[in-house]
UniProtKB/TrEMBL annotation:
<keyword id="KW-0690">Ribosome biogenesis</keyword>
<protein>
    <recommendedName>
        <fullName>Putative pre-16S rRNA nuclease</fullName>
        <ecNumber>3.1.-.-</ecNumber>
    </recommendedName>
</protein>
<feature type="domain" description="YqgF/RNase H-like">
    <location>
        <begin position="2"/>
        <end position="100"/>
    </location>
</feature>
<dbReference type="InterPro" id="IPR012337">
    <property type="entry name" value="RNaseH-like_sf"/>
</dbReference>
<dbReference type="InterPro" id="IPR005227">
    <property type="entry name" value="YqgF"/>
</dbReference>
<comment type="similarity">
    <text>Belongs to the YqgF HJR family.</text>
</comment>
<dbReference type="InterPro" id="IPR037027">
    <property type="entry name" value="YqgF/RNaseH-like_dom_sf"/>
</dbReference>
<keyword id="KW-0378">Hydrolase</keyword>
<comment type="function">
    <text>Could be a nuclease involved in processing of the 5'-end of pre-16S rRNA.</text>
</comment>
<dbReference type="GO" id="GO:0016787">
    <property type="term" value="F:hydrolase activity"/>
</dbReference>
<keyword id="KW-0540">Nuclease</keyword>
<dbReference type="InterPro" id="IPR006641">
    <property type="entry name" value="YqgF/RNaseH-like_dom"/>
</dbReference>
<keyword id="KW-0963">Cytoplasm</keyword>
<dbReference type="Pfam" id="PF03652">
    <property type="entry name" value="RuvX"/>
</dbReference>
């Protein structure tokens, strides 16, 4: 069984989370400069067995696509060309950034640490992956 890799796509930085090989636990992996995201993913899947990508689907409160969806679609096209054998699933990512920030507060991180946007992105990716795992269990 391969891992599931979640992506919280951003135009500047992208949060990455990964499951264990049994697809039980979601853990933050890293935050990647979006410009080098495809090469990072190609390198990663050459080292680790990845069964599926889960990419956040940003929606507005009225259930319409967010403005960032245009950028995500462009990324998905590039991803499909670079790594065509790994399927992509989308999952609603509304509130993940707010939940990530609250998680940082709840875990006792100091204000200076909570301003680390890269950490917020990584936690957001982890929340997307946890949500995916919960909805498919």
């Amino acid at each position: 069984m391969g891992r599931i890799l979640a992506i919280d796509y951003g135009t500047k930085r992208t949060g990455i989370a990964i499951t264990d090989e049994l697809q039980i636990i979601a853990s933050g992996l890293t935050t990647v400069d979006t410009k080098s995201l495809i090469s990072f993913l190609v390198d990663y899947v050459n080292e680790e067995k990845v069964e599926k990508f889960v990419v956040g689907l940003p929606k507005q409160m009225n259930n319409t696509a967010s403005e960032s969806e245009i950028h995500i679609q462009s990324f998905l096209n590039k991803l499909n060309k670079a790594i065509p054998k790994i399927p992509v699933e989308r999952i609603d990512e509304r509130f993940t950034s707010k939940m990530a920030f609250q998680t940082m507060i709840d875990s006792g991180l100091k204000k200076k640490q909570r301003q680390n946007k890269a950490l917020v992105d990584e936690i957001s990716a982890t929340l997307i992956l946890q949500s995916y795992l919960a909805s498919n269990s």
